[in-house]
Fold each of these.
Amino acid sequence: MVNVHEKQFLLDCGEGTQIALRHGKIRMMRIDHIAISHLHGDHYLGLFGLLSTFSLLGRTRALNLYGPPELEGLILSHEKVGESVRGYPLHFKATQTESAEILFEDGSVSLESFPVRHRIPTTGFLLREKPRELGVKRDWIARLELTLTEILSLKRGEDVQRPDGTVVLCDQACHVPPPPRSYAFAADTRYWEKVAEWVQGVNLLYHEATFDAAMKDRATKTFHSTATQAARIAAKAEVGQLVIGHVSARYENADALLEEAQLVFPNTVAASDGLILEVSR
Amino acid sequence: MVNVHEKQFLLDCGEGTQIALRHGKIRMMRIDHIAISHLHGDHYLGLFGLLSTFSLLGRTRALNLYGPPELEGLILSHEKVGESVRGYPLHFKATQTESAEILFEDGSVSLESFPVRHRIPTTGFLLREKPRELGVKRDWIARLELTLTEILSLKRGEDVQRPDGTVVLCDQACHVPPPPRSYAFAADTRYWEKVAEWVQGVNLLYHEATFDAAMKDRATKTFHSTATQAARIAAKAEVGQLVIGHVSARYENADALLEEAQLVFPNTVAASDGLILEVSR
């Protein structure tokens, strides 16, 4: 679940997601966007129950759903056999794995998909804050009696020449807004250097790390990554922080994988149930 | 989950069933029969993940699945989109809602379905132990030097006339085996007296009790039952014990519904997560 200024994006929805959302005290009805990376059960089987819960809770607001083309038919099949009536519109947009693509954007955030390499067609997702407008300092507005036109020019980053010939420098008259932040979710994927291009420079990268380095061959064969490989992508992409997850059940915990990743990319943490990360600039 | 002499029957499989099975320390791979009452999400959405887990755990033994005809297509759809290969045969038998029917039987147990009345086609399920053979007392075999033919006759419940003219009475020579037990799961259903006929005399009856008596109209409209109605079916069917469940989330707990049912049918308990009931004779 990614919260961007109280807009909530759910990325993947495995079985039991509703329970996790309740544990996390997430306001389910505030979820307006769900993006599904691929159609393996652990990534989408919780979706049908969640969509049905939305109806039970009386949702009428439209829901935006992004995922592989076959997902829409599956939803319709489940609704058909249950003879259930959805109480809200579902806007489905099929993802593709040819190229990166903007799935949604508004004034403050954009959601992109990008291809990864898994056994079946799979995409990662990338959420970016939009750059915020410059804010003109209040005392400058008052002191110089700036006109609306002058203020709007400054907000666009332009310096302003006044009727009396003086110049108001944008750099001086404006607050610098905090740089926009970004989060990438690289889903299930084998090591693929192209992923580092798609997620270049994000503040926080989730990359799966199913296996340890000794199991590299098995990772490649099953289209998964090792902790070292995840860290290598993070390093190549020069991300701010890496969070690894999707750890194989063969490991009692993520400790060894975390150590392995940190050798290559020190600012790495391991995902765990209920973990909350603040995306820092 | 019904355990009949270590044969395990899973009746319905809502989302999160795998977690419940793990909490209950149930040996998942020992489940050879799964029966789905109807295709509302809370009764079947955990099935796809469970079937896939069986493959991950290396299952090769066949699984018997019973449920509405559309269920098989849904399973195939999910397997297709995930390009997943099942490691074991799945024997699917479609249920129907015209009449009661034996879905499976072997030497020790039978599984029947019976129609109930819900918003969509739905069946309940009934598990019956087979009557056990009579056991001829060991000391009688030794003392009278009974022949194999004589023993088999006694086991069939017949008295035996011996070559010397004496008669060995079955009642005296045999242990009386315990009477077979039975459990009925009436799934989701509105009050329907026919259900009492299908489950007549079972030792333990599960009957849903979604609402309290004051909400009878809503129960009828939504094809659910009140606690009083569940208890009335139990009384009519002269069952040994009643367990009520599927309590609406509007109630904080099942206490009031339990009291209500007990007024009509005193030997009632309320289902709860992890509850284990021994079916008594």
Amino acid sequence: MTEKGKVKVHMRIEYDVLKETIKKAMETAGLSEENAEICATVHAQSSADGIESHGLNRVPRFVEYVNKGWVNPGAELELVSAKGAVENYDGHLGIGIVNAVHCSDRAVELAKIHGVGIVALKNTTHWMRGGTYAWRIAEAGYMGINWTNTESCMPMWGSDEPGVGNNPFCVAIPREDGPIVLDMAMSQYAYGKLGVYRLAGKELPYPGGFDKDGDLTSDPGAIEKSRRILPAGYWKGSSMAVVLDMSAALMANGKSGFNMDKENRGSCTGCCQIFIAYDPYLFGSKEDIQSMLNERVFAADHSHPAEQGTPVTCPGERTVQTRKKSMKEGVRVDEQIWSQVQEIADGNLNVTDISGK
Amino acid sequence: MTEKGKVKVHMRIEYDVLKETIKKAMETAGLSEENAEICATVHAQSSADGIESHGLNRVPRFVEYVNKGWVNPGAELELVSAKGAVENYDGHLGIGIVNAVHCSDRAVELAKIHGVGIVALKNTTHWMRGGTYAWRIAEAGYMGINWTNTESCMPMWGSDEPGVGNNPFCVAIPREDGPIVLDMAMSQYAYGKLGVYRLAGKELPYPGGFDKDGDLTSDPGAIEKSRRILPAGYWKGSSMAVVLDMSAALMANGKSGFNMDKENRGSCTGCCQIFIAYDPYLFGSKEDIQSMLNERVFAADHSHPAEQGTPVTCPGERTVQTRKKSMKEGVRVDEQIWSQVQEIADGNLNVTDISGK
């Protein structure tokens, strides 16, 4: 969205204003009021949590996908088959966020009955921020695990062309003091992050891919050119990505990343997503489990810091701080994208070719 | 086991001879014939698969733990509680391999009934090679997912002292052409691997930790000294390690890595392990699912290689090749450790202080 070489300018917008504007943009794009509310809440919360890439920034592209017919805003989630604690849904290429929210909630309902609930969703579309659903399950009081497959965007280890998705994997541990949440794509850095560093004229903190000569590099521009982003942990992230892809497609009886590659539509179009909710107090008392978790987090957070003044934290803890700040001071947004979304909301901008695909 | 600075010498031993010798060592240590058979098979298979570190090499330390009373060879796995597809067991600090084999098999039995089976095991001991159980579930025709927590051996990201376990995570996808198996510890390299490189006088292929000055390094000796091994994917492996720890302890109502640290016994003593089996044909036909998986693997394996002549493979595929070679030519073993295990088997060596703890 931002032109190459142009530095982004940020501003802060009140959460409610942000959410209502996104909601209006969604309704203008053809979503029902109910679905627009769900989507706007998830996008606004992601920005409020500091995940701009899948918050406000992603709204224009979502609208573009709707306009292109890659996302069908009128599709309804369909229960295909079920066995006890496990259910299989077809998303019919409907709204990714709406499908994923309903499947997360259904996993929680199943866990209430069976102790565990597993929902395997196929033929859905981009769920935006993966962590949304693990957080949601944890906020409902359950442990959440969810992952998705995607089309290929990362080379398999030992290859120099994209061959596997970056397939995010998320786990949320419910705690009364705030959940601990892993939200981890299998690439070391997202392409979006490379752009941020390049525009700021900075090197990546650690090598993030290979240059065109096959050398490991921290130069974000060189990696954008080669398309050889680095799997997190080298061969480890590549291996985990491919099994996450296969497991999602197997569990949901849906498409693998390879099947999506063949169809060559928008990002995550037709993907599979898995949602697991687990009752944290199935075998232990609430008091014992919460005390065990709190001691674990306390010990981790009090590890001796490598750099004085930079305390260690567990994943998700800093997100809670960012969220608090956003609610108090307004949500940080990219000025240009904010203008664009306002124009979409007002019906003055018809987005049909943002992704260039 | 090998003295510092001494280069290891390897030889090949026929699989059956290896297994029977380990079995005899296990019986000499006090295991029943039945349990010795289970343990010997798992150790010998690990070596045959090329995972020496948790195959033959680990036998003396296991015997040491039995001799010290950290593993109780007479303990029986106990069903604590159950709800539908989920069962909770207490391992009573019995034999890690035996407990884990029984829990894997039980997960498969539950999956036969419920479509999915989840066994959460607490108070168990080291299961040796994590991938053993995912392979086992896949060989029974089910998708397997298993993970364990461990005592702290790796710094949290941003810390300079061990604060979290390297908590292996394993996934096996059943395929008629051989399973695809992820067996991934959360550290970039195991300490054992650092030793192998140091003894060979080699640098690690990629940075594997920090030296005493806090700089990222590929020098294995410098990392052994600082005890700052690198989480795979930097902050990603650290975050995943801590949620794997918490999720295992929560699901099994057992000890976290922090609880194990306080008790300060042998490696993994008292840990929690999770075993999940999922029916791959719950929602799709065998033909469709196998065809989807085969296409996915074929495409990944035919990614353009970064180096000509070095083909890309999915995890587990090369293991099958190594296993075939071991069965044909004999299993590769460290000569010195092989002698040691033979002496244990013959009752000529009483191991009580190998780990120095």
